[in-house]
Structures are given as C-alpha cells and as structure tokens.
Write a structure and sequence with these properties.
Keywords: NAD, Transferase. The chain is of the alpha+beta class. It is built from seven helices and nine strands.
Length: 191
C-alpha cells in the first residue's frame, strides 16, 4: 500500500469516528440536527465537517462505502445521510419487526457477565440491544471491552413470548431487551 493511501485510510477512519459521534450521539457538537428518522442534510454535514477535516461529497461517499461495519446510509439521491443503528439520541429508524434466526449472539466482556445474568441484557444508553447473527461477530464486538464472553440468545422463545426484533440496514439484530431467562453461555457450550 502506498504511503498516501495509508494516510487517507487513517484520516478516513478519524472522520468516520467523528461522523459516528455526531450522527449517533451528539449532533450538536458540530451544530447539525437530525430529523425524527435520524437523517441530516449531506451538504450541511460536509460544510460543518470541513472546518475540522478535508472532506467533500466524494470523500464522504468513500467513507460510507468502505466502512467495515456499514454504519451509515445515504438517501437514494445522496442529499441525506444517517447512521444505521447505535443511536443514543432518540430517532425512529422506521424498522419493521422481523423474524430473527432461532439463535442470536451477544458478545461482552467477562466482567459484565454477572450483572447480565442478574438483569439480562439492557440497552444501556442506546435505543436497542445489539445482537449478532454469528459467533465471530459477537466475539469481535465483545473483544472491544476486554476478555470476551459470548451469550447465546434463544430468540425462538423470546418471539413466543411477544418480544420484537428488528434488522438494521447494516445487518445488526436489534431488540428492546433480553431477559436473563433467554440467555445461555455460548462459551461453555464450545469448551
């Protein structure tokens, strides 16, 4: 990889993290607003970001297209942009209930396991609990917080008791909570 390409990737990663902050948690940091569905005007976002970063529409398109977690979406005409999930600010992503796979996974740090067995998985400061369709993704998510522990979630039972699930634009399964009775320790199942 050329030095310039590497520098661009590192810079794009910084910009992407900042975009994540403003589109998911703190739009006021750069003086933008989100509509009720989490969208903001692309031109205004670029204008506000340009005081901090070297950015234009093409760079923003590249950041969105190459984001490994596919965190963002454009409207079809590229005039609006929003984060796909992970909001701590209240937005309606217009998600419809979906039938999830029979089992989903949640990765966390070992130090949180006791509390999760007591209270279940709570959304904390986010709008939803995030669940993964595979163990590898759950392990990757959990590893950000320390030694990993993966829970298996019995979504079949949850559905039978009326819990709803949603699938975000970027493939993350979402629900309001996961009570402890639906949890199994995946880690112990594979050891």
């Amino acid at each position: 990889m050329k030095k310039k390409e590497l520098k661009n990737r590192e810079n794009y990663k910084k910009i992407s993290k900042f975009i994540s902050l403003v589109l998911r948690h703190s739009p006021e940091v750069i003086g933008i607003s989100l509509d009720k569905n989490g969208w903001t005007d692309t031109d205004i976002l670029i204008k506000k970001l340009s005081s901090k970063f070297d950015i234009d529409l093409n760079i923003l398109k590249e950041i969105v297209a190459t984001d490994e977690k596919q965190r963002y979406s454009f409207s079809p005409d590229f005039t609006k942009i929003r984060a796909n999930q992970g909001h701590s600010v209240s937005v309606d992503l217009e998600l419809l209930p979906q039938k999830p796979p029979t089992i989903l996974y949640h990765g966390t740090a070992q130090r949180f396991v006791g509390g999760i067995y007591e209270k279940g998985i709570q959304r904390q400061n986010r709008q939803y609990v995030h669940l993964s369709k595979d163990v590898e993704t759950a392990q990757k998510v959990g590893s950000r917080h320390g030694e990993v522990f993966v829970f298996q979630i019995d979504t079949h039972k949850m559905l039978s008791e009326g819990y709803l699930f949603y699938l975000s634009e970027n493939g993350v399964w979402l629900t309001d909570e996961v009570p402890a009775r639906f949890l199994n320790p995946y880690n112990k199942l594979v050891e």
